[in-house]
Structures are given as C-alpha cells and as structure tokens.
Amino acid sequence: MKRNVSIFDTTLRDGEQSPGATLTTDEKVKIALQLALLRVDTIEAGFPIASNDDFEAVKLVAQTVDGPYVAGLCRAVEKDISRAWDAVKHAAKPCIHTFIATSDIHLQYKLKVSREEALAMAVSAVRFARNCTDRVEFSAEDASRSDWDYLCRVTEAVIDAGASVVNLPDTVGYAEPEEFGRMIRYVREHVPNIDDAVISVHCHNDLGLAVANSLEAVRNGAGQVECTVNGIGERAGNASLEELVMNFKTRAEYFDADTNIDTCQIFKTSQMVSRLTGITIQRNKAIVGRNAFAHESGIHQHGVLSNPLCYEIMNPEMIGKKTEIVVGKHSGKHAVRDGLSSLGYTFEEHQLNTITERIKALADKQKTVLQEDIIAIADDVLNESRMGVAAVKLEEVTVTTGNKTTPTAVITVDYAGEKKIAAAYGAGVIDAVAKAMTKVYGAPLKLEEYELKAITGGTDALADVSVLFTDEEGREYHTRGLDEDIVMASVKALVNGINQMEREKRR
Ligand code: KIV
Ligand code: ZN
C-alpha cells in the first residue's frame, strides 16, 4: 500500500511573507476555501500574534473552512501560543504550530540562550499548547544547520511533551538533497519515540532545491511536506505545492507514496493565488507556467500528435487546465456557468450576468476566449462584488500621446459622491495617469512597481496590470486592473488601489 504524504500548505503564512504580497482578510478566506477544495491536509492561515489583521484573518479562516486542519503559527512563548489558540480554536480541526530555533548560530546571536534553555522552552511551549488542543506541531527552526544529536534530543523531548508533528525546516535553503535526506534518516533512527509523531519538512528555495530536498526527505521517512502554491514565500520562496504533488502523482512507483490532493484543482488555485497576491508565475514554471504544456518544436508537435506519451509525462487536464477554446462570442450564459462551475466557482445570478457580458465583449474583440481569460474575468468580477461599495468610481479618462506630443491624461471620477477632475502630464501615459490620480486623491501615491501582462498572449489579449504603490506613511498597496486596453487596465489598477487605501483608512 502506498504511503500517504500530508500536504501542509503555508501559502497564507510563509507565502504571504513574500515581499509585496499582502492579502486582505477576504482574499485569505477565498484562498483558504480553494485550498480546502484542493484537499490540502493543513492550512497554515497566519501568525496571529503578528498583528490584529493577522489574528482576525486566522480566526475567520478557522470559522469558515471545513476539512483541513487550520494552523496558527506562534513562537515558543505562552502569550504567542494563547493568541494563536484564540484564533484557531474556532476551527473544526485546530492546530497550534509553535517553533524555536535549534542551530547554534540562531541560539547565540538571535535568541541569546543556551541549547539547554532552548530545549526547556520548546518542551514547555508544547506542554502549554497541548493544554489547548491535541494537534500540536513543533518546528525546530534552522534544523538543517543544527547539530544532529542536539536536534534528536529536542525532537525526542517535544514528542514526549505531546507534539504530534515535528517539523525540521531548511529555513535558509542551505541543505543539499542527499544530505537533507540523510538528516531525516538520522533523526528517524536516533529518536526512540519517533513513531509517536509525524516528521514534517519545510524547505526554502534559496539554492533552488526546496522541492528536491522535500522529496528526498519523504524518501527517508518524512510524512508531511510544507509548501506554498506557486512556491511563493520568504526570499526565493518555499517548496512549490504543485511540483511536489505532481512528483508523487507522476512518479508514484518511485516514491511509493501519494497525497490526498485533487490535482484537478491545481491550475485554478495557482491562478487565484497569483492574481490575489500579484505575484506572476514565470512562463516556464513547472506544472503551472504558461509554457508548461506548450510544444514549440515541429518534432515535438509531431511526436505528441502521434502519441502524447512521446513527449508528455503529464497532461494539462490532470491539473484542471483546459487547452481548447472554451467560449466564443456565440456561447451563452450556460456555457459560462458550466465552465466556471467545473472550475469550482460559485456565484450569484447577477455576477454571472456581468461575467458573461464581459466575456462576450472580449470575444467580440478577441474572437476566442481561453480558460485563463475566463478565470481572470470571473476573479475580477467576484472581487469587485466582495470589495463592496467603492469610494472612487471612474467616470471618464482621456489620454493623448505621440512622438511629438507630451503624454497627458485627464481623469474624471466620482469620489464619495463628489465629481473630481484632474489633468497631468508625465514621462509616458501611465505616468500621466498616475499623476492625475494623485491629484484626484489629494495625497501623494508613490508608484513603486508596475507590471503589464497579456493574459493569453497576442496584441488583442486581455491586459492584466499589477501595481505596487506606497502612501505617504510608506504603507504598501498591491492592486490589479483587467481590461482589453492597457491604459484602462492601468487606470483600473490605480482606482482599485485608491479604494483599497480608503477601506484601510476606514478600518
Ligand atoms: O522557515 C522556517 O523555518 C519557518 C518556520 C517558522 C516553520 O517558516
Ligand atoms: Zn519558512
């Protein structure tokens, strides 16, 4: 019988620690519901002591999501653990995830405690957490740079104290696969009570080895892997969920292991996480990149047509990606409803009407509308509904540019019931639009990043603009705009940003 490897998803915690990837509470709940459809075993929803927003988000995820464990991260101190418990206790299956570093470098320079003191803190944290719930995970931060015998002592002690999962992270992405596998085997062979807990691993991708290290750990006895959708996370990110899962699925005989994941939900989850975090997926990213299943060379195309096995070890349907054209301008609401329902979307009738209208408008211009377009439009419409009443509504925008003309933008908006008009010139039209928006808003907005992407390629494709800007207090806002026109997509991204700032202010 194949071994089952648990998938511990930390997209909402470690993934959200990616620079620029702040998610609202609503967005976190939306992703958490999708992770439940994907059938992950645990959702790490956040770090409740970090901020009130984090606490509320973890609590709401715990109240809303059914199926997976909902975990909250906390340092190995009582006040952190109590805060985490207050947030996760609402879950049907709560989990407290407490951690302390075990490497000498962290103990000496960060925590300034001895090995014995850290061990005692770990044990009392686990005991304290066990008073709240049965499901307690302990992480030995920077395990891969820790002394192995000390790591074994800590592991044995926290299992004795009641930890049901012991996580051994490669926190700084330093380990090499064979070495990391050997470390897992060493712990397995030198900790007498190891069978009373599940060994988990949590690998970072600083040297591009997070997935390889996690897989090697599983081959050496780990029963849980911690990962994020699209591999997002601190610095170079975490092990990518989709890559791990598809390794187990595609090479089942090699690993003799599988997961509970519904792989047909992978593509949708990946698109949603990319869209809501604003972190675009590299084109050639394994499994979910746009080119992952595209055969360019004639020899490959011929081979695949004769028999897909010639060049394909997986097919796009396995991850829920449809390659055929899904909607044309003659398709109706039913086709859109069926297409979206099969992707796991739920919506109200009026939202479906708006989505259908926008798809048809795009089909009129673009002739063919692909799955990526439909997902982008549906996310955009559902997002707008979720955001509620917008403080700023765009009424009119006019831009002029040319090789002998200074780029200018004139913008008219309805700002909380008041009509406001502003004009500005800039280095280019987008710069002019951003400056006009700043005038409308009446406070400085600093555009830090601007990214334009064509959803499905081609000059008639939907434009997806993501912007990162800061307000006068240096707070970051990451928003997106979707339109067939790049200027309009840019304007929408900025208007969405101002509305997000207004909501923050009200909060
Ligand atoms: O990278 C790491 O070590 C972590 C722990 C808190 C699990 O994120
Ligand atoms: Zn981490």
Write the layout of secondary structure elements.
Blueprint: E1 3-4, E2 6-9, H1 25-38, E3 42-46, H2 52-64, E4 69-75, H3 78-88, E5 94-101, H4 104-111, H5 115-130, E6 136-141, H6 148-161, E7 165-170, H7 177-190, E8 198-203, H8 210-219, E9 224-227, H9 241-250, H10 252-255, E10 257-258, H11 266-277, H12 298-306, E11 327-328, H13 333-342, H14 349-366, E12 368-369, H15 371-387, E13 392-402, E14 405-415, E15 418-425, H16 429-441, E16 446-454, E17 463-470, E18 476-483, H17 486-506
Parallel strand pairs: 1-10, 2-3, 2-9, 3-4, 4-5, 5-6, 6-7, 7-8, 8-9
Antiparallel strand pairs: 11-12, 13-14, 14-15, 16-17, 17-18
Helix pairs in contact: 1-2, 1-11, 2-3, 5-6, 6-7, 7-8, 11-15, 14-15, 16-17
Bound molecules: 3-methyl-2-oxobutanoic acid (KIV) and zinc ion.
3-methyl-2-oxobutanoic acid binds at residues 14, 99, 139, 141, 167, 169, 171, 202, 204.
